[in-house]
Amino acid sequence: MDGGCAEKMLAPADFAAVAPDGVAPRATAPLNCTGVTTHKALKDTDVRPTQLVAISGVGGLGHLAGQYAKIAGATVAAIDVTDDKLELARELGTDILIDARKEDPAEVLKRHGGAHAAIALAVNE
């Protein structure tokens, strides 16, 4: 939507939502872009409960993808190379943590029966 980052904008009701009581609208702002991006990625996988979803990169997008996958009932594997991001994934209930500095993500996923879907949200410097 044009003006989506503005202080105020006019939008159709289908594009708006009310923040739940006790949740500041500012806290929900990231859902407008990162939330929609990761939700669409997960939706396109057609993941079902108990299926394994691998999420590579647990930063601003990846942690949301993991939470959406958990809500969908999926088993979530988080892949990253940064301790604090892997810790965040653990705190958010990720089932399988993979530190790609120490182990081969493909081998770990194979040990768990393979992933139904892989969502790549990592950057390459």
From TrEMBL:
Q: Which InterPro entries match?
A: ADH-like_C (IPR013149), NAD(P)-bd_dom_sf (IPR036291)
MF annotations from Gene Ontology: alcohol dehydrogenase (NAD+) activity; metal ion binding
Has keyword Zinc?
yes
Q: Which UniProt keywords apply?
A: Metal-binding, Oxidoreductase, Zinc
User: Does the keyword field hold Metal-binding?
Assistant: yes
Can you give the residue ranges of the Alcohol dehydrogenase-like C-terminal domain? 60-119
**Required co-factors:** Zn(2+)
* Record-listed E.C. numbers: 1.1.1.1
PANTHER family hit by this protein:
ALCOHOL DEHYDROGENASE 1-RELATED, VACUOLAR PROTEIN SORTING-ASSOCIATED PROTEIN 11
Put simply, this protein is called alcohol dehydrogenase
